[in-house]
Amino acid sequence: MRRVLLLNITYEPMTTVCLHRAVCLVLGFALMLMRTTHSFVHGLTQAVTSLFTVGAIHSGGAPNTVLDIAAGATWVVIVALQIAYLPVLYGAFNRREVLVTMLDSRAGSPAWGPELLARSELVDNVQNLAKLYERWEEWAADVAESHASYPVLLWFRSPHPYRSWVLGLLAVMDAAAMQLATQPLTAPSEARAFLRMGYMCLRDLATVVGITYDHDPKPGDPIQLTEDNYRDAIHHLEHVSWKMQRGEAESWVHFRGWRVNYESLAYRIADAVNAPPALWAGPRRNLPPQLQPPERPPHREPSEEMQRIRKLTEKRRSARESDPAS
What we know:
The chain folds into 2 domains: 11-83, no CATH class; 88-320, no CATH class.
């Protein structure tokens, strides 16, 4: 039932907009036609047939003929505009979902920031996180522009029930903030630029949907994520040999200073668009409180083989760091 609920509300806003416009047009022309037909029901019937260019019913003489033609022409124009906008909306939706779908293999489903760092460490892909942050910075700028112009896109859901654009953005922002907090000496500069663009994107979208927020939060302001939640994530990273350049308590202070800029925005937008419940993504008013942790593909190799792979990974990394030309 939960899976069906998440999938069935994908394109409801666009359908609702079209229905509202059709109903308003029919009622408006029915009221104008009622002046000569002297019957709201008769005027409504004539308006409906004229609106959809059927023209089966006509009464009232020349004045009503003008109204009949206006009703049919107005609806044709509205339908033409709707059809013209569909490719624009689908193009923006498709650009948004490409990176969200790619994140499935990197951060799980639903996406979770610490899992993104853990999987990058497991497959020796930490050095490529800079490129990921750079692509997501461009993604955030694109979403801020397109979704602020066409707010209905905010409610277009991903095809997969546990994928969500706002969860994906939140996960990558959490990963960037955690890397900056735990590895200040080696974290890529792209992480800072992406975080800035990320919370600017959330602010633009919050303004569109009428969500108020603090324009100048302080690093020491409280956040909903607890230090215990953060400690569990640190242990999750330590389990895959993530290198810590700051202590747990010190890195928490820096992570909280980053997250205070975007946590409340992400939580409220995720609740507004009814995003799937996920770790570090806030509560949902219309969904069960049970959180869905990201699913990691099982490792099929024996434990001895896992240790050997980690040693080889460490050797490759040491060789790469010792040879700047590589």
